[in-house]
Design goal:
mainly alpha
Length: 155
């Protein structure tokens, strides 16, 4: 039974002391079961995270060797579960390293040149937005439609 159905039954029936105590006991059992499942899932996730950290450190140590030798050794290794090759982990590790490098690069640029969003906004401000371009086109069309228009006067 789900928690909501137990609560619905509890509220729908007349309150007899025995039935209320039984229903509450069922609810407590249900909550305990869910908490135990959650704890086991959290423990499994922590174990997987620990294994990935160990593999990442091993991979990092192997990437410092010469590239052909390191690549052959990386491709030969497989995780204990047999599902993920270490070469896949290498690509994940490389992406993370590139992301870390780009974060440091952006941080350095911000320190040197200021906030990149502010810089980008100032560049956009220098360009004419579409609405201004359309209004300029409409203004030129009106001028051309005017019989008294003279190109010399415009300049």
């Amino acid at each position: 039974m789900s928690l909501t159905s137990l609560l619905d039954e509890l509220l729908a029936e007349p309150f007899h002391a025995v039935s209320v105590h039984l229903r509450l006991a069922n609810l407590r059992d249900e909550v305990a079961k869910v908490e135990k499942e959650n704890a086991s899932l959290v423990a499994e996730l922590a174990d997987v995270a620990r294994q990935l950290e160990q593999l990442a450190s091993r991979v990092h140590a192997k990437t410092r060797r010469s590239e052909p030798e390191g690549r052959a050794q990386r491709e030969a290794m497989i995780l204990p579960s047999g599902r993920v090759a270490e070469s896949d982990l290498i690509s994940i590790y490389d992406v993370a390293a590139r992301l870390k490098l780009s974060i440091h690069t952006v941080r350095d640029r911000v320190r040197k040149k200021g906030d990149p969003l502010r810089v980008a906004r100032s560049r956009v401000g220098k360009q004419r937005p579409m609405q201004f371009r359309l209004s300029k086109i409409e203004e030129l069309e009106r001028e051309l439609a005017d019989p008294a228009y003279s190109p010399r006067r415009r300049r």
